[in-house]
Write a structure and sequence with these properties.
This protein is of the alpha+beta class. It contains nine helices and eleven strands.
Length: 279
Amino acid sequence: MASRPPPSTDGSPSHYVSGQPIPRSFIKKSNRLDPTSAAQVYRLNASTIAKTGDGVNMSEAATLRYVRQHTSIPVPEVFESYIHPETGYPCIIMEYIEGKTLDEVWSTYSGGEKERVIGQLKGYIGQLRSIEAQQIGTVDCGRVQDQFFEDNDEPGMAGPFDGVDAFHEKLIMILESKGEMSKKKIMEQFLSEVSKGKRYRIMLTHNDIVARNVIVKGDIVCAIVDWELAGFFPEYWEYCSAVSWADSRSPFEREAGFDAVLDSYPEELTYMRRLWDLF
């Protein structure tokens, strides 16, 4: 059963009745934290946010609950999650985590503080990667949440997939269906030159592990956020995603980056960057 959000302590109205959706009018009057983001995140009061909109999926709530239950990774507590009856969009009511992003503070750290933060991240990501599965998809056995599959609503095309081979084969089919024949060839080369003969494990993966999604207080990692793309993926996927999508403006990712945190897969990275149009 979902836990109930704490009552408002800042004088804002309270509509937190377990199982009852928060009115859209109240959400819209709340402070939106990042107006440029596809996901709409509103701070309802000092300790609670609502995440909703077209860029949100219900599997994020399932992942947050799963990670809190099976690991010591700090993530926001989910109070409620539902399809909002007024908008038709998923809506996740969750804990607001105070702190700064790793991006904001990395350049202020001493050498020792940097080592401590990297050590914590290694431990947390290690816990995540220790959770394995036989199927590729979300923790609630749903479709894969990733850019390759986001525009494909044909049944079965976005998974879940019974193993890595099925996942790779479907990637090729999707690229062909989109007319991206050069990328299809890259994927075929990847299968014949890199992954052939390898038995990739399927690991729980954040799939957007960048510095802006790490919240810290001092040199303590107090939350890893934004789990909407998370799920079970081939073991190389986390590294390739983190390194490929690293923000070159980020002080953390310029100096250390997730190369310092994750096991590296350099051969796989070469091909994945080409698939994602990153060179």
